[in-house]
Amino acid sequence: MSRPLAAFLLLMVMSGCVPQAFTLVTPGAVTVGSVTIQVEAGWNEVNPAYVAYLRKGGATWTRDGLLLNRIIVVPSTAAGEPLFKEPKASAAYPKFRADMLPHEVAAFVESSLTKIAGEGEVLATSSNLRPARYGDAPGIVFDISLSFADAPEQRGVVGAFVIDDQLSFVAYLGAHPYYSERDRSRGEAIVASARRIAT
Amino acid sequence: MRLMTFGMLAVVAVAALAGDAAFEVPEHAIPPGYKPEVARDERGIWRELEDFEKELERSPLRITDPALNDYIDDLVCRVAQGYCGDFRLYVVRNPHFNASMAANGMMVIWTGLLTRVASTDELAAVVGHEIAHYTRLHTLARFRKIRKGMTVGTIFSFGLGIATGVLMPIGEMVAIASALKFSREQESEADLLGAKLIADVDLDPHAAYRIWRNLIEEDQRAEVKREEPGLFTQTHPDPVDRAEVLEQFASATYGPPPEAARDEVFLAVLANNYKWLMDDQIRTARYGRTEYLLERHAALGVPEGLVHYFRGVMLAQRAGAGDLAAARTAYEQAAAAPEPVAEAFRNLGYAFMKDGDVERAREHFGEYLARAPGATDKAMIEFYLQEQ
């Protein structure tokens, strides 16, 4: 590395110009785009610049580090859009459809998670699909498991509901078994607290 | 890191060659039971691979079903003949088409291979190709080629840099290009020796080129094309050339192909594992490819209830013009088939519910729960039944 470049980078770091990776999430009602979520203390928002899959307006939080636990919030996905940021058209991310049935939403999430982890690198499976309510809105909740070729399994819970043809998605994932079990009730509470903001 | 190391050391199977039709089938370069004892670099490669293999043994994506493993293992042994004891098979859950052989005899088969071959002969052709990589010591030869080329290339680049004042990795680029050409030559060798190996045990060597023709057709049907590697990074010959050479070789050496016959053993294996295999394919959201595979499976004789069901799932996922209506028809066909998939009734139940036909929705949901008493979405179905 050239000396001027090293000096510039050092100056950037010292002056705080390098994007901060984590920001403490203030406990209470937190707004993410068109969705509010009740959050307890201890979660940190990951700078979106460090989360390649996150579409504009979404959020990722973690307590202990992204490999150990995370909350993913994608407040609104319109018909024809992918759930996560599609890196290139050849990645062939599945697209949301406003009239998806409950099991089709679960399959859409499975496929979307498969895409961001890498086709063939992960086995994403949903189970225990059940009804849920998000305020006045009917929705669904289901368990999710991500088995990786060479990383610890992640387990968690996904909540989803559709209002005005827009999908709201909140997921909790934790490394199995320790973090997924330790934080499961926390994750479920966060998922269940999601509400669409009245417009 | 470990994966990268493996990627460098393993000979990625499925792909190969080109060239003219002077068919000199190479001989095995090592005897059965071979172990590296002299060369330090070879022993080092084996040690690295042993570490990787230990991780692969524990991988949650490894298929441990005894019936499926036995079927492929028996085939490996049949094709390998005297080398049978040199190989350890790992069937890995991955919806894409690939197989690989490491220098130490660790053979990896991706499950996407099973949805893409049409018979035991075609699966054997891939296995034979991999075995040929092993017995020809291809991994070691390639490793040495790259090491030597990069050393010379670096010295060349450095010398050029001193002479011109501009440091460019020209020597290294030449070395990489040379290694890629070498890799393509190895693939050609493995193709011919692999086809010979399967012919030696009374399997059909014509299967070797049929696989490539099918893959080419699948690729043409893809709605979203994958990004192909650039010319400079291609480790394998063009599939069209490869199929042509293999066809010429098989026809010239073994005569015309035998009459096509239904492979009941392979079909049973495919049908027994079809649900999870196609669930994995569906998750790729690659509709054109899935549609092509389903058409092939129908022609092969996979139970129609399974094929109709997954066609319905694919159409509902794609949701293009007319797809949702076609999906419903496919579910109806799946439900009417001799061995229907339980989920076909569920999906029809939802369809009737959307229509407002509560009676028929109840009937189909009831049929679903009767056929799948352990269904984990039971709460969802019961919720809809109570809502009506």
Give the radius of gyration of chain B: 25 Å
* Major sheet of chain B: 4 strands, mixed
Radius of gyration of chain A: 18 Å
Counting helices, strands and paired strands, the structural category of chain B is mainly alpha
**Number of separate domains of chain B:** 2
Mean pLDDT of chain A: 91
- Biggest interface, residues from each chain: A-B, 34 and 37 residues
Q: Average pLDDT across residues of chain B?
A: 88
Q: Give helix % range of chain B.
A: 55-70%
Record field, number of beta strands of chain B: 4
Helix tally of chain A?
4
Instruction: Estimate what percentage of residues of chain B fall within beta strands.
Output: under 5%
Count the E strands of chain A: 11
State the share of residues found in helices of chain A, binned by percent: 10-25%
Strand coverage percent of chain A:
35-45%
Based on Cα principal axes, name the global outline of chain A. Answer: globular
Q: Give the strand order of the largest sheet of chain A, numbering strands 1, 2, ... along the chain.
A: 1-4-5-6-10-9-8-7
CATH architecture of chain A: 3-Layer(aba) Sandwich
Distance between the termini of chain A: 52 Å
CATH homologous superfamily placement of chain A: Mog1/PsbP, alpha/beta/alpha sandwich
- SSE string of chain B: HEHHEEEHHHHHHHHHHHHHH
